Amino acid sequence: MAVERDEKYILIALGGNAFQSKGEAGTPENYWRNAYRAAETIVRIVKEGYKVAITHGNGPQVGIILEWMERSKDKIPPMNMDIAGAMTQGWLGYLLMQAIQNTLIREGVRDQVKGVVAIVNQVAVGRDDPAWKNPTKYVGSYYTEEEAKKLMEEKGWVVKPDPRGGWRRVVPSPNPVENVEVGAVKKLLNDGWIVIASGGGGIPVIRNEDGTLQGSEAVIDKDLAGEVLATGLGVGTFVILTDVEGVYVNFGKPDQKLLREVTVSELEKYYKEGHFKPGSMGPKVLAVMRFLRHGGKKAMIGHLHKGYDVIKGLSGTKVLPG
Ligand code: ADP
Ligand code: MG
User: Does any domain span residue 129?
Assistant: First the structure.
């Protein structure tokens, strides 16, 4: 099939800050503006002849949904984590889908693709994953230490200090093993559609022995789930766009250094030395190492607002096999 490890077939992972930047109120207008900003990058890439699949984070949004549910729980029964994840796929998938469609039209390149489609997408995780016993993923609102302790007592949540400041709830983040609807995504991509899939790391489900699925109370890292999708699709290029310039060694220290081009084995050495924080840069680095070891051609990690340059190799960190 057309997609097989062609470098022009690309999966782009957009960070959670793609839709709600720090310090923004998070109004619908903010969301639309940010969606259009991401769409501009996507359309520039499409114009270059790339066939694009997109995934996105949902950390801030799943947090908002959890808070809505929390505040209205006396009137409306709260939903579960998997249902909240599905809601964010609809919410953000819709924004991106329409923003990209409209941008294609405004740029006069509507005919370059069949169309844009966002899918509700399940990702299977293991029943025996050690993550169930060791929650690591930050979700929801930021609390003070005092509020955090109260929530731990009253709700039995695990709440920890977030490296970016404040205290937040942490939930299990099991390893993604299978993108359930990957076959449909691949068909659409090969047929010329821009596809938005695996949003928020996918809806976390567990596969039973008889093949049936059930939702689970977890959050899957969107970069690791992105790798499962990228590998399942067989794209040649995997790009992760976030809120830093790229991958640094000695991050946050006076001698921090941006890695511009590295091989998987060099990156693995740094990974083992502990340069990349779990729950943020750690899974991105792990995701690109897995992608390249699974046969991917190249991977990039860079700043969302420089997405085009990152893909062109002019900005960010480029990772190659070897
Ligand atoms: P996203 O929403 O894009 O997934 P994350 O917060 O999960 O964003 O990951 C990006 C963050 O990773 C950066 O804001 C940075 O604070 C953090 N980080 C941790 N270690 C590193 C490192 N070695 N190099 C660059 N960024 C790092
Ligand atoms: Mg992240």
Answer: no
